Amino acid sequence: MVPRFVKAAAPVAMMMCAAMKPSHIPAAVTSYEAHYASARLIPAFARKYGLRCSACHTIWPELNAFGQRFKDNGYQLGNDRDSPIWQSNSYWPISMRTTPQFHMENTTHQPIDPSPSEATITQTGFDLSGVDFLLLGTLHKNITFGLVPTLDADGTTGLEAAFVRFDNLGSSPWANLKVGKFELDNLLSEKRFTWLSNNGGFLYAYHYQPAGSVDNYTFGLGDNQIGAEFSGHSINSYTRYSVALLATDDGEAGLTSGKGVDAMMTLSQAFAVGSGLGPQRVGVFGYLGQRPTAFETIGGNPIPGTGSAFESFVRVGATAQLWFGNLELLPLVSHASDNAALGGSTQKPAWNTALLEAHYVAHPRLLLQTRYEMLRMSTQADPATPKTFGDADAMVFGVRYYPFMHSRAGMALHGEFAMTKTTGMAPLSGDGSGVDALDPATKVWSRSLLLAFDFAF
Amino acid sequence: MNPHTRWISVVTACGAALLLGGATPLAAQEAHVGNLTGHAAAGKPLYTRYCAGCHGDEGDALGENAQWIDPKPRDFTAGVFKCRSTASGSMPTDQDLYNSVTRGFVTTNMPPWVALTPQNRVDLVAYVKTFSPRWRNAKSAAPLTIPPEPAPNIQGILHGRELFQHLECWKCHGPAGHGDGPSAHDLTDSKDNPTRPYNFQTGTRFMCGETNQDLYRIFMTGLDGSPMPSFADQLQPAEAWDLVHFLRTLQPLQTREAAIWREWVATHGRELKPIGPEGGGR
Q1: Which of A97, A110, A457, B275 is most buried, taking the most CB atoms under 10 A from its CB?
Q2: Could you tell me which residues are beta bridge partners of residue B250?
Q3: Residue B92, preceding bond cis, omega within 30 degrees?
């Protein structure tokens, strides 16, 4: 079996992880923490427009229908106050978010020295997240910008997003063009996640890669990507679509991969049915990607940008956002497969995921939430690999309470308990030693307990 | 708890429930838009979520953001609304309020809430109607009937221009519609807050809509609470349409009225008298 940290330590992957590393999630011991997303809430918009957080967020950072329309419209409300020329000179479109916390991570069957030995590893204590600097707004009417520098708790800096967007081309909401590094148009957004713990703060559906994948193949639907996105929506954003052409480097700047292009498509439709907090929305997505399997080399090391012999991978799925009064259900199903060359063996690895997330918005200041996700391998790249190797089950429970709700800042008291069960494989959280269990049939349990103050200004 | 005390508790609780349930207008207030019925009780949490930051928890325009907003948010306790289809001084229809929530007000901080479901919006309308006793006391008024719009022509536009002069619209809106008339800087609303007249040169939409019918309705009903009066007693429908067609020529839009006007001015511009204190309109 391929130890996960060995794969992650490959040169290209290392560069990618450095670029993707999130800032507000607790630092873990392996680079798989890169899979965590940094969530968004932007009090700068609330200050600009004088709206409470709850106007745009079901419960921040998750967007509601009004917030989704605001984002789709290029962070514009559609009145005369959208252009920055209307703002006071003292207005500065920046928000900052960080999360001081206490957390405990407990992972079973972790290989330790001397080999072969295993132990349950518990890591606990007070910790810090990094800081997200969220600069987003309008340069002019119908010209939007986004810039998200990040500062990790260990001092590492990053650039998670940087884009410009031309909105309402030809005065039509159906035509918008965004260029740069940005979040994919995922209906179930990890960037606006209400989960923060190591084991709960990401989706296997968005980040899983099977054992044996080649070193320079790194991809996550939840990772910000570099490219161009053409998107559109109806006046109320009930109908939405996007088509994106993306670089083949999983969001890493510097033309590291090659001349290939990935493509992403999304389509969703909302219906004003029922009396819930929002409309009922269903959507589909598809990602067709490719990665090089050969590079020119110097001294045996790959030369960035010289990738060739591209091989493909696919992610397709369907998701929904359903409201029953104050109860929100977010189901998602997806199928994924990789070319055999990317899988590192003779067969095309394939797997399926299904999840159901539930939010009970008791009040704009109180959220009770849970999620269950399962991942099942259907085909292993290596026929000799046990079929269940890599299967995962993840459960998480949480509560967020917001002591106040206004347009200047936000704070949440966040409690979360997450647990994952993986078969043979180390959990994607990277908790423990980050190495697969000695026996591929072993059920590895990883648990996270997080108590945090999540605030933004 | 002994039986006697328990009985007292039960009776007290029932009495309180009856009192609250029967006396609170929240429970009974409804709004009707199309085939939707809005309920104030359902609208209250939505109001807290979306509206209270500006309009205040009590609907008194004293939300925490109100101090930063210009123009100030609407005070629902006064029961005075600008955008109506009803006569000046009367209450708006539920449809009027629903349209306002949906459309927003382009010249203010009030955004269009079109992304909310229709049921959410009509629930909000029902709750907004709980803030002022005028909703219980005032007689319901019938909406204005807008007659069919005649096709614009140069005679009508010129007549509209004369009305713009004669009715002294220019005193606030300015001779060219720039919102810079001699009275423009002294205007206040019904709460003594400074207010500005509409600038036709920069605006492509109006506060209460964007169609010719909306414009017709604005000056036939007036904008209650603002200096903009109703001209229903001074204008016949045909005259009102002439004024609409003239006002369209003041906007930076490619409209039929603007095309007719430009063509006429190219050959007859010198015949025009200036609008203003000395003007005659033509």
Answers
A1: A97
A2: none
A3: no
Residue of A nearest to B52 (CA): A52
Dihedral angle at the C-alpha atoms of A240, A361, A49, B203, nearest 10 degrees? 50
Chain B nearest CA to A88, separation (Å): 11
CA distances from A307 to A181, A256, A261, B13 (A): 21, 8, 12, 76
Cβ-proximal residues to A84 (8 Å cutoff; 6+ apart), any chain:
A91, A93, A137, A138, A139, A140
Chain A residues whose CB is inside 8 A of the B64 CB are 406-407
Nearest to B104 among A79, A237, A272 (CB): A79
CB-CB neighbors (< 8 A) of A68 in chain B: 115
**In B, residues 97-126, which contact A (CB 8 Å cutoff)?**
104-120, 123
- Amino acid in the structure at residue B188: T
Tell me if A34 sits within 8 A of A17, measured CB to CB: yes
Handedness of CA A57, A142, A250, A128 (dihedral sign): negative
In chain A, residues with a C-beta closer than 8 Å to the C-beta of B105 are 79
Q: Which of B54, B64, B111 sits opposite A77 (nearest CB)?
A: B111
The upper half-sphere exposure of residue A426, i.e. CA atoms within 13 Å in the direction of its Cβ, equals 31
- Tell me: the pLDDT tens digits for A127-147? 998 899 999 988 988 999 999
Structure tokens at B186: 């002294």
Q: For residue B119, which residues of chain A lie inside 8 Å, CB to CB?
A: 272, 274-275
Q: What are the distances in angstroms from CA B90 to CA A367, B93, B128, B174?
A: 42, 9, 16, 29
Q: What is the pLDDT of residue A115?
A: 84
> Would you say residue A409 has pLDDT above 90?
no
DSSP string of B113-170, one letter each residue: -TTS-HHHHHHHHHHHTTS-THHHHSPP-PPPPPPPPPPP-HHHHHHHHHHHHHTTTH
Q: Give me the pLDDT at residue B161, please.
A: 94
All residues of chain B having their beta carbon less than 8 Å from the beta carbon of residue A279 are 117
pLDDT confidence tier of residue A41, bands split at 50, 70 and 90: low
For residue A323, what are its two tokens? 């409201």
> To the nearest whole angstrom, how far is the Cα of B60 from the nearest Cα of chain A?
16
Pairwise CA distance, residues A209 & A16, whole Å: 15
Contact flag B45-A80 (C-beta cutoff 8 Å): no
User: Cα(A48)–Cα(A73) distance, rounded to whole angstroms?
Assistant: 16
Which of B110, B111, B115 lies closest to A65 in CB terms? Answer: B115
Instruction: Give tens-digit pLDDT for B138-174.
Output: 777 889 999 999 999 999 999 999 999 999 999 999 9
CB A198 within 8 A of CB A418: yes
Q: Which residue of A has its CA nearest to B119?
A: A275
Contacts of A274 in chain B (CB under 8 A): 117, 119
* DSSP reduced 3-state for B216: helix
pLDDT(A335) > 90: yes
- The shortest CB-CB distance from B48 to any of A65, A238, A364 is to A364
Please choose, from the candidates B250, B213, B214, B205, the residue with its C-alpha nearest in 3D space to the C-alpha of residue B108. Answer: B205
pLDDT at A331: 98
Q: B54–A50: do the CB atoms touch at under 8 Å?
A: yes
> Could you please report the per-residue DSSP string of B56-83?
-TTSSS--TTGGG-SSPPP-GGGT--SS
Q: Do B117 and A279 touch (CB under 8 A)?
A: yes
For A72, the closest chain B residue by CA position comes to B115
Q: Which residues of chain A lie closer than 8 angstroms to B114, CB-CB? A: 69, 235-236
Contacts of A441 (CB under 8 A, 6+ apart): A386, A388, A389, A423, A424
